[in-house]
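COMPLEX REQUEST
Ligand: magnesium ion
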Amino acid sequence: MELIKRGAEAKIYRAKWMGKEVVIKRRVRKGYRIKELDEEIRRRRTKEEAFLMAETRRAGVSVPIIYYIDTVKMEIVMEYIGGKRIKDFIDDENEETQKKICRMIGESVAKMHSHGIIHGDLTTSNMILADKLYFIDFGLGMKSFENEARGVDMHLLMEAFNAAHRNEKLFKWVFEAYGENFDEADEVKRKIDEIIKRGRYMRRVS
Ligand SMILES: Nc1ncnc2c1ncn2[C@@H]1O[C@H](COP(=O)(O)OP(=O)(O)O)[C@@H](O)[C@H]1O
Ligand SMILES: [Mg+2]
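STATUS: Structure written out below.
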């Protein structure tokens, strides 16, 4: 097993499992929580993440196949997606390709949102382009049909684009495709604007 990332919540390993290339996401113990509660939280989040991945697939968006869930070791064994993270290459692409990718992102998020799936961490590090566009890392996700939750999700994506890519066109294309594929996009846009305003106000008073 090869450790590929040590996050605050989980360790990510690459491994071979039953002859397959897999990623193992293991939720790590938080020493500041009492043991029983800590296990309960990690078990719940492991299940929730797997559940959201399954729901997302049902919504027609690609996610790694889940091979195994271990609620004792608190791990998800999933398909290894051999591709490139959007974050690592989109800036180097020509405009036509960038637009195509951004439109795929917008369309995929529209599908999630119309099926009540809030990803919770929509950054370009959590999207991998292989044969298709895959979404990973549903550890902060939840089920909701509220436009507020959708707005928070999209606002985070906007911030992620602005911070990592510094090309305003990218998110514009994402949102364009989102709007074409989701009836409630106008309402979500209003929520995003509200969140931006709130953010400015918070910065001003602090
Ligand atoms: N199924 C997968 N296939 C390929 N790479 C993966 C997969 N899952 C995670 N990774 C890689 O590991 C990194 C961290 O995994 P992620 O689930 O996003 O955890 P974290 O919560 O630490 O961000 C990702 O950015 C990606 O590079
Ligand atoms: Mg991640």
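REMARKS: Residues 2-79 form a domain with the Phosphorylase Kinase; domain 1 fold (CATH 3.30.200.20). The chain is about 50% helix and 20% strand.
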